[in-house]
Amino acid sequence: MGDEWRRYLAQQAELGGAEVILGAPAAAPTASGADQEPRWKRGAPPIPGPGLVVLSPAPVLLGNDLGALPTLDAVAERIRTTYCCDLCPNRTNAVPGEGNPRARLFLVGEGPGATEDATGRPFVGQAGQLLDTILEAIDVPRSLVYITNIVKCRPPQNRKPLPDEIAACIPYLHRQLELVAPKVILAMGGTAGEAMLGVRKSLGDLRGKVHTFNGIPLVVTYHPAALLRNPNWKKPTWDDVRIARQLLDR
User: Fold this and answer.
1) 0.90 surpassed by pTM
2) In this predicted model, what pLDDT tens digit does every residue of 200-223 receive, in sequence order?
3) How confident is the model at residue 93 (pLDDT cuts 50, 70, 90)?
């Protein structure tokens, strides 16, 4: 799917749209020493207006001593060794999340799939390969971000997590966000957007705005798996991701 995304961006460049060719090196300095505009920024949409403003529960509401866990590794160990909902007994592996502990960009998906359940790592299937390609296109490789999900165990048949499953698991996500303290959050998919913002709204209603979660800008976009099903969502996703990228530089 990375090759398909590369072809799409190349076509955009030929049409005078995104003007991005995936994987191209950063633009070289001009003779005057000024850097040229990054390729991902050409034709990027402006940063939209504000959306919802949300505060997560106070740490004392997280239960047990979760709010006192000092590191991401400690949170991950708690996730792997604790059953918090009915998804846990049927997992092969819990999938706590992974990435740079000082990431400026924090990515949140819905839940692990089959490959993630088998490996214990987030976004390592086809959707993960596509996500890696998208991150490369905005000059923020996977090694610089933190990636996790709303729920840390795979729902049966990859169904959407139920409200009680989300409620039981999301305190882990809140603690991970506290520890990473990113500059921007990218919620991938309607389930992730709704859970992060505590609302019941369509993905269309949540996109196109810069929400705020605990003072951190939050952008909602399509899940990479959705792009595998419907290529028509590539362009809006590319726009959303470039909005998040611009927020990193603001």
Assistant:
1) no
2) 999 999 999 999 999 999 999 999
3) very high
* Closest alpha carbon to 125 in 167, 154, 168: 154
- The architecture of the domain spanning 48-249 is 3-Layer(aba) Sandwich (3.40)
Q: Where are the beta strands (DSSP E) in the chain?
A: 50-54, 98-99, 105-109, 145-149, 184-188, 210-213, 216-221
Main-chain phi, psi angles of 217, to 5 degrees: -60, 135
Please give the order of strands across the beta sheet that includes 105-109: 50-54, 210-213, 216-221, 184-188, 105-109, 145-149, 98-99
C-alpha 43/C-alpha 236 separation (Å) is: 13
Question: Closest Cα to residue 222, out of 191, 199, 197?
Answer: 191
Q: What is the pLDDT of residues 38-77, one digit of tens each?
A: 999 999 999 999 999 999 876 544 556 888 899 999 999 9
Residue boundaries of the structural domains of the chain: 48-249
